[in-house]
Here is the input.
Amino acid sequence: MTAINLHPSSDHEGFLPENQLILNAVSEGIYGFNLDGNAVFINPAAERMTGWKSAELLGRNIHDCHHHSHLDGSHYPKEECPIYNTLKDGIAREISHEVFWRKDGSSFPVHYTSTPVYKEGRLIGVVAIFRDISIQKQTEQSLRQALQQVQALSEKLSSENQYLQLELADKTGDVGISGTSSQIKQLIGQIKLVANTESTVLISGENGTGKELVARNLHKLSNRADKPLVCVNCAAFSSSLLESELFGHEKGAYTGATSRRKGRFELANGGTLFLDEVAELSLEAQSKLLRVIQEQEFERVGSSDTIKVDIRLITATHHDLLKRVEQGLFRMDLYYRLNVFPIFVPPLRERLDDIPELVSHIIQELNRKLGKKITRVSQKGLQRLMQHSWPGNVRELQNVIERESILSQSQVLKLSQQLGPQSDQERTVKKSADQTLETMEKHHISQVLQETHWRISGPTGAAARLGLPPSTLRSRMKKLDINRPV
Here is the structure.
């Protein structure tokens, strides 16, 4: 801005312009000040905006009338006012973050300039031109709020999208709760009893038994079925990252936290949170989880702001949690909070009669997944499945059927592949079946002789243990080439 040069008038030296009609017609408010800081000119627009009449302000210090306080009500000293500073140094200024006060005590945001007035190179006063920017400020505020809402929605969608992608990546197939055994009937009955409550459920069972499937059914049958079910495998994250995964983090909370991220608790708000392998939580994370259960609130990592949530909690573990409590690895108070309604998922070896129905369900799922038209497993193959001990439970069964489905060119699976790792009992039976009677007899006699320290006769000797006369035992040892080691 450049200094302006106005011709003086006889009424107020240097200020009353020759073309006052033009100044009276403009929509901006205009004040003229002399070197003492008193008003010497006020146009009608200034009167309309402030409510002050020119007759009330001319010759007075206007700062004390409409510029005396900041927006928050704190005192605004005249010495800090840009208009009066221009009177001192002749430097033009432009301000858009202050307010003027009306005569009725209300305020409005203004944008104003203070421009020095010169006559013949000599500073004689200042002209302040201002306008009400209330609408502009309201528009800016509305825009900021809209942008915040868009950002919040974008973050929410991004977090949910990331979570859904993780869910799809983790999902290995749904085998359903199939079977007619008494164990399965009891399990389904427990699910129906507790599903429509808000009670915390602790699901226990060996790996691969289908604990997550039980959790999904609990959510599906609950009042929260139309809200999200968020699953977290606590064993899949280090203790340092698990807290961020559960509670989220702020940008810069730790190395690598390049943006704010919502945790699983926030994503599950209004729905169900399933914590699988909950025994893997660190003691620190257990303490925070206990607080969330009790108070339904938490803070993101790197933030002190409290976030309220409404969730239904379901947990699962293959460990004996009570034993881990005794070992000092799990908090007793958290254990009792989680163990409100315990559900045990039986291992597959205890319900082998359910295998035919399970296999049928798995085949239907695999046909959709692989584009196959498999109808069944052969009778011989089904017998092999029924004889296996299934240390990997339903998950192992699913993997076996999927592997056979990929390899098969027929609509009937014949199970040509070796089943998974055998149990000790299965290995013992197979080993025995491969041995001759003579080999088994030699092994048995040698083992008894070792246990009796090679004493043959007497009440504690090997012959008495085997129910043979000592002479017969010696004869068998010679025939089987059993010799005492030197």
The first strand starts at residue 29 and ends at 34. The CA atoms of residues 147 and 153 lie 10 Å apart. Confidence is low (pLDDT under 50) at residues 1-16, 168-175, 423-433.
